[in-house]
Amino acid sequence: MKKFGLMMYVCRHKMKTFLRIPLIIVLTWNFTLVAQLDNSSFFREGASAIKVKPAKTLGYNVEVFNFVRNNEYFGTLDPGHTFFGYQFLPSIVWMPSKGNNLSFRGGLFLLKNFGESGLKSSRITFTMEYKFKHTRFLFGTIEGALSHKLIEPLYRFERALEDRIEDGFQLKHSSKKLWADAWVDWRATTELGSNRQEEIRAGLSSEYFLLGENQSLKDSIEHNNSLKAITQATILHRGGSFVPQPIVSRSNFAMGLDYSYFIRKNFSFFAQPFFLYSIDHSIQIKQPFKDGWAYYLNLGIRKSRFTGMLSYWNATEYSSNLGMPLMQSFTFNDFYATKRERQLIFVRLLYTQKLAPGFNVDLRLEPVYDLKSNDLQYSFGLYFNYKL
Predict the structure, then answer these.
(1) What CA–CA distance (Å, rounded) separates 51 from 60?
(2) Tens of pLDDT, residues 262-278
(3) Left if phi > 0, otherwise alpha if psi is -120 to 50, otherwise beta: which for 46?
(4) pTM of this prediction?
């Protein structure tokens, strides 16, 4: 054990030296700054994004997502995990009305984790979508996971690898000054005689442009200064009038600003501070802390296919059922494993390359340093995305 402990000590100190190299690269390269991690290659905007010729009413799309992500975490809050497998999502869309305002999309979702026999998940997907002006209403399989644009303390990236499909209803709005996403995700139902609680997740994510305009509406990105007010919230509810288990209700809130300043076309910088709050509304509170708070600061730079990002996290008694476990003050799997205060520094290095039309590869390296325990941990990932 002493020999193993010595090896871990040496590895971590070598990692600290290695960490200085990407920091130097990040500070000296000529990048374009981005306010958040660019996860756009991991989702698409449903039926409205499928190009259907005016004379046609049928369309289709295929998504293939291959991934490997290794979280080398050694603490009690998040022991680490390796995600290795693929997702396959073929679907057909029918647009019966002129103008393509109404659409019905049906398909199949398959998830295979390597090292396991058979499929991890196989589900039929079906969505009704109605579009009016700048707003879309979806009923059925909604556009979930990373497409909500939630920050990591509210929604961990790995959920897109293991728990991607969401069923319920959703309202999405995208105009010059406002992007908004409100949804209800019905996770589990119950019936008379069952001990399983019904589970509902709901959320709101919005970006209001105080300066500049929504770039997602434009064919080409304009490099203009922008200031956005960001509001995000998630709610988890477990209950049932005839289930002999205590009702659980928890909420998370985040508010922040995103300011980007472009010096020239391919060089800009930004500041993005967030304030977060978590609270347990349950009548019988079983977790160690009723409520908590945190602040989160992201700074990032980007040029062409390379992105660098630096994040600082400071939290006290913060918790989130859907958020990144490493950022929390306790784990829901073991309430005795608690760390009341958390102070972390993240470095994110991302590289995205288009290999063919609709086919991208993403590489990510994300070291994290714990200022309280002086521990250095890291994760890395390789992702292939194909969208037809």
Answers:
(1) 9
(2) 877 777 788 899 999 99
(3) left
(4) 0.86
